[in-house]
Design goal:
With 293 residues, the chain is of the alpha/beta class. It is built from 10 helices and 12 strands. Strands 1, 2, 3, 4, 5, 8, 9, 10, 11 and 12 form a 10-stranded parallel β-sheet that branches.
Length: 293
């Protein structure tokens, strides 16, 4: 029988935590039954620029090396930070090192203010989307293992070839909801990650994305049995606001995720407002994930 239950990934920005803490969170998520984990990709933490943060690709490799089953990816890598020839090889390296547990999540840049700070060519939103499309063309061509000649607006390759090829199929996740981005989803992606504020447009977006499946990122506040709900919810709303925030005990969260799954969401990226403590991961695994499978 085919499992039609939704997938659950932990979204865990790799900031304000040591590498040892990140590994502990990843291992706790794996033990709790999560399908995967997603990191962020910035040159400085948004709105917390002075805080410590680890680089996205290197951190993914470290977490893949310290887990056995968990899929690891990003929401999402910023296209402008890497040449597609480098990105293609990084992705295949992670794919081989992990036995096929890496996913390529990519977008065209959600925080353009960091571009001039770090000397990254900014461009217009239109040019960044066009660059992303060209990146995906180049990456997928290089993954074939055949020589690639590409003369584009942003990149030029002359009989470029990369070996090895992926072990199988490296899934591609594209974030965003604009018409040009959704066209890239239709052409290239396995998953379309919708911003939570675009949830009401899901029925309109679905016909535009071809065979791609829909994922959604949700901020989640789990109320453990016997806990002070008002205190926990108050801290969460102070830290994260109310947009896209799911709050509840296990019964309430199961009901909320079931409703969203019924609307066609097949994967949830869960951003816990307590920064995914091992206790929260274990409790969510037992009280929500296990009950939805």
């Amino acid at each position: 029988m085919t499992d039609t239950s939704p997938q659950f990934f932990v979204f865990l920005p790799q900031m304000r935590m040591t590498l040892e803490t990140l590994v502990a969170r990843a291992q706790a998520a794996e033990a709790a039954g999560f399908d995967g984990m997603a990191l962020m990709d910035h040159l400085a933490p948004p709105m917390a620029e002075s805080q410590p943060m680890y680089e996205a690709i290197t951190t993914a490799m470290w977490l893949l090396a310290r887990t056995e089953r968990l899929t690891v990816g990003h929401l999402v890598l910023c296209d402008a930070f890497r040449h597609p020839s480098v990105l293609a090889r990084q992705a295949v390296t992670l794919d081989h090192a992990s036995g096929g547990r890496f996913e390529l999540g990519i977008g065209w840049g959600s925080v353009p203010d960091e571009f001039p700070v770090f000397g990254i060519p900014e461009g217009t939103p239109r040019s960044r989307v066009e660059r992303l499309g060209e990146t995906l063309d180049v990456v997928r061509a290089l993954w074939s293992g055949e020589p690639v000649t590409h003369h584009g607006e942003h990149f030029r390759l002359e009989a470029a070839q990369q070996q090895p090829t992926p072990l199988g199929h490296i899934p591609i996740v594209i974030g965003g909801s604009g018409p040009r981005t959704l066209e890239l989803v239709r052409r290239h992606a396995d998953w379309s990650n919708l911003p939570i504020h675009q949830l009401d447009r899901m029925d309109d977006i679905r016909p535009l994305i071809g065979d791609a499946r829909i994922s959604l990122q949700n901020r989640v506040t789990r109320i453990p049995p016997g806990a002070d709900r008002a205190e926990i919810e108050g801290v969460a709303r102070k830290r994260f606001g109310t947009t896209g925030l799911l709050v509840g005990d296990d019964d309430e969260l199961v009901a909320q995720f079931t409703e969203l799954a019924g609307r066609g969401v097949e994967r949830f990226y869960v951003w816990f407002t307590d920064f995914a403590t091992p206790e929260t991961l274990a409790g969510f695994g037992e009280g929500v994930i296990a009950r939805m499978r």
